[in-house]
Amino acid sequence: MLPEIITKVYTMNNLQNYTPSPAHNSGDPAPPYEIDEIMLMFGDIFDCINNDGTIKPKWELDQMGLAYLPFTIPLAACPSIEVDKIYCHKKLISTFTNVFRIIHERNLRPYVRSYGGCFNYRSKYNDSRLSTHSWGIAIDLNPETNLPGTRGDMHPEIVEIFQSYGFEWGGSWKRKEKNPMHFQWCTGY
Ligand SMILES: [Zn+2]
């Protein structure tokens, strides 16, 4: 691991042009820190919110894309539906693809039991601020057994794979906010 000072090579000004590289390497820029950096890298969502609180279609059209999965995952809300792609931020397509490729290669598929969702315009759980799901930079897995406030049962190798690609794990947050189903590609928010 390179020291933070070397890995964090970007400046606030070039974040909006940055796309995470398809192959993970330790020299890659760090995920955005706090709301200002999230908006620079992944878009100014407040620009697309209508005055009835809904989101303009432009947001999804401009920002979201599909990451194809190497295996299907039952949809948590309707397990007869086998999810084979993730609707996420365009800039994270290769990152999500790589994470699930590694999960597949390490035979950890049985531990990904259900898909709770990725892009979702909404507020954070127990918080008035917008969720990172609104930018399509967060994913929920196995929500049934990884509810907020619990320790959950996320497989440590799955946590390690997400973290190696720059994701923060909600299970590592302090007790009140702990959310073990949740992984997000940003920090400090
Ligand atoms: Zn989540």
Keywords:
binds zinc ion, 4-stranded antiparallel beta sheet, 189 residues, alpha+beta, two-stranded antiparallel ribbon
Write the layout of secondary structure elements.
Layout: H1 4-7, H2 34-42, H3 57-63, E1 64-75, E2 78-89, H4 93-105, E3 115-117, E4 138-141, H5 156-164, E5 168-169, E6 182-184
Antiparallel strand pairs: 1-2, 3-4, 4-6, 5-6
This protein binds zinc ion.
Residues 133, 138, 140, 182 line the site of zinc ion.
Task: Summarize the entry for a quick read.
With 189 residues, the protein is α+β, with helices and mostly antiparallel strands.
Task: Tell me the distance between the termini.
Answer: 23 Å
Domain unit count = 1
Instruction: Report Rg.
Output: 16 Å
User: What is the number of strand segments?
Assistant: 6
Order of helices and strands, N to C? HHHEEHEEHEE
Hetero compounds? zinc ion
Approximate shape:
globular
Number of helices: 5
Structural class: alpha+beta
The portion of residues forming beta strands comes to 15-25%
Outline the structure in words.
The chain is an alpha+beta fold and 189 residues long. It has one domain. The protein is built from five helices and six strands; from the N terminus they run αααββαββαββ. The strands form two sheets. Strands 3-4-6-5 form a four-stranded antiparallel sheet, covered by helices on one side. It has a two-stranded antiparallel ribbon with strand order 1-2. The radius of gyration is 16 Å and the shape is globular. The protein starts with a helix and ends in a 5-residue tail after the last strand. The N terminus is likely disordered. Zinc ion binds next to strand 4.
